[in-house]
Specification:
This protein has helices at residues 3-8, 28-35, 76-87, 102-114, 144-155, 189-202, 215-227, 244-254, 260-267, 272-292, 307-313, and strands spanning 14-19, 45-48, 54-59, 65-70, 90-96, 119-123, 173-178, 206-211, 234-238, 297-301. The chain is an alpha/beta fold. Strands 1-2-5-6-7-8-9-10 form an eight-stranded parallel beta barrel, surrounded by six helices. It has a two-stranded antiparallel sheet with strand order 3-4. The chain has one domain: TIM Barrel (Alpha-Beta Barrel). The chain binds flavin-adenine dinucleotide (FAD). Residues 49-50, 52, 94, 96, 123-126, 143-145, 177, 183, 185-186, 191-192, 195, 198-199, 208, 210, 237 line the site of flavin-adenine dinucleotide.
């Protein structure tokens, strides 16, 4: 079932979450171990992130450089298919522009469709570490908007080449990302929302937000989107901070602020356990307020760990 149909068929706030593919060499059981504890809360859909390869150059001597592509977490689409088959729950593979030509994208979409997956989250992806800014693949997409348009074309039976025009249309529900605190590269919130509107007009049927720790940021953002004529469901993304590492890297990596009251308490935490207890408390408080305001779904970023999300979900669902 499509995410948009889940959202439209319920007047209650749904529960959903995002997982990461395991590191290379691990097996699918490590994925199940993260999902099993959350199934009692009946997730409507589970997202699986996509991780682009990193490129490194090795000096092979005599002026020769070898280009090596490293992928730490492959397998997004296969993992979605396995989860769907095992738990009978809808899955949402993330698909990015980075590293994909339009042909690669079409192949990935055909595979998603073959496997009976009804959804895709269309993203641009971040620049790889060796690039100063995002550089699209040759013949790839520079922005998620173009990827959304390509998926929409496939849904209308419009494949890349005329020779393929007898292929059947797909019927994929398209989601996209948005940023209550503005995307890091956007010149300002207005330009970010203007581009977001184009992404929705291109065919994104719903949006999922970057994590945020202050609900007011989400409420203000949704209000602003509505004023600008963006009327699709906007699903809030929530992340409980569970260790001292999170405190150090999350604000910097995801370009999000922690509210004063939360930051003050976090600064007093000396152990991972203390951060986790506080994180569960804070996110539960956020989630309860969002649930009262009847947001479409509470979407949790698990980053491969389910205990904190389980503790929160058990107070809500
Ligand atoms: P875009 O919508 O293309 O926006 C990127 C920037 O370009 C913004 O500043 C925007 O304002 C601007 N812009 C947009 N359209 C245009 C245009 N037409 N012309 C000029 N400027 C434009 N990354 C991964 O690698 N894998 C994942 O699985 C993944 N999952 C994510 C899930 C969610 C819910 C979120 C919020 C992010 C996720 N990301 C993931 C991170 C995401 O790929 C990065 O934040 C990336 O930098 C932007 O992606 P986007 O799809 O929002 O890009």
């Amino acid at each position: 079932m499509k995410v948009i149909d889940h959202l439209h068929s319920s007047d209650k706030t749904l529960f959903s979450f995002e997982i990461l593919p395991p590191l290379k060499g691990k097996d699918i059981r490590s994925i199940y171990a993260g999902i099993d504890p959350l199934m009692e809360f009946k997730p409507s859909f589970i997202n699986v992130t996509y991780h682009r390869e990193e490129v490194i150059y090795k000096d092979r001597g005599q002026g020769l450089l070898q280009k090596i592509r490293l992928r730490k977490r492959p397998g997004t689409v296969g993992i979605c298919a396995m989860i769907k088959a095992k738990y009978d729950v809808d899955t949402v593979p993330h698909l990015i522009c980075g590293g994909f030509s339009r042909e690669d994208t079409e192949d990935a979409l055909i595979e998603i469709n073959f496997l009976g997956i009804d959804n895709v989250l269309a993203l641009r992806g971040d620049p790889v570490k060796s690039e100063p800014h995002f550089i699209p693949e040759r013949d790839g997409h520079a922005h998620a908007e173009e990827l959304v348009r390509q998926i929409g074309n496939l849904n209308r039976g419009k494949y890349l080449y005329e020779e393929e025009q007898e292929a059947s249309p797909t019927d994929l529900c398209i989601g996209a990302a948005c940023y209550p605190e503005k995307h890091a590269e956007a010149l300002n919130p207005s330009t970010d929302i203007a581009y977001l509107k184009r992404k929705v007009e291109a065919g994104a049927e719903y949006l999922v937000t970057q994590m945020f720790f202050d609900n007011q940021r989400y409420f203000d953002f949704v209000e602003r989107c509505r004023l600008e004529g963006i009327n699709v469901p906007i699903i809030p993304g929530l992340k409980p901070l569970t260790n001292l590492r999170h405190v150090a890297f999350i604000p910097k990596t995801f370009h999000v602020d922690l509210p004063d009251a939360y930051a003050r308490e976090l600064l007093k935490c000396r152990t991972d356990e203390a951060v986790k207890q506080l994180g569960v408390e804070w996110t539960t408080h956020q989630a309860k307020e969002l649930q009262v305001r009847k947001v479409p779904s509470l979407h949790f970023y698990t980053m491969g760990r389910s205990e904190a999300v389980k503790a929160i979900a058990s107070k809500l669902f």
